[in-house]
């Protein structure tokens, strides 16, 4: 018997939940990213965000990640202790604290970028039966669901 549109949609949502659970497990295991230091995925992603911005602030990171400034500040302090990040006052505005990667942080950033690219290309090779249009539709659906979650979070 063929599934209804509603049944297919509910199954799709369930697969999203299952992927979220798997990602949570994956993120709970520390890994190395081009240095001897073990980092959790959330730390590597914070380094990635800082590297993408080149120089940023706690407020900017909090806004991007939808986390509190306190939570981001704690993460940045951990990364400072591990010598991945430095903090300094903005020379043009002493009230603003700037954050950027150290050489060690840049090494993790570059390693993580390459690792993501390799991983994503491996996935792409396994998904040859799906068209570019299929991927675009997935992005549209995901973007809609993310916006709905953002609205729930912001309530």
TrEMBL record:
- What SMART domains has UniProt attached to this entry? HTH_MARR
Domain named HTH marR-type is located at 9-155
Matching InterPro entries: HTH_MarR-typ, Metal_resp_HTH_trans_reg, WH-like_DNA-bd_sf, WH_DNA-bd_sf
Sorted UniProt keywords: DNA-binding, Transcription, Transcription regulation
**One Gene Ontology MF term:** DNA binding
The family database entries (PROSITE patterns) matched by this protein are listed as: HTH_MARR_2
This protein's source sits in the domain of life called Bacteria
| Protein's name in the database | MarR family transcriptional regulator
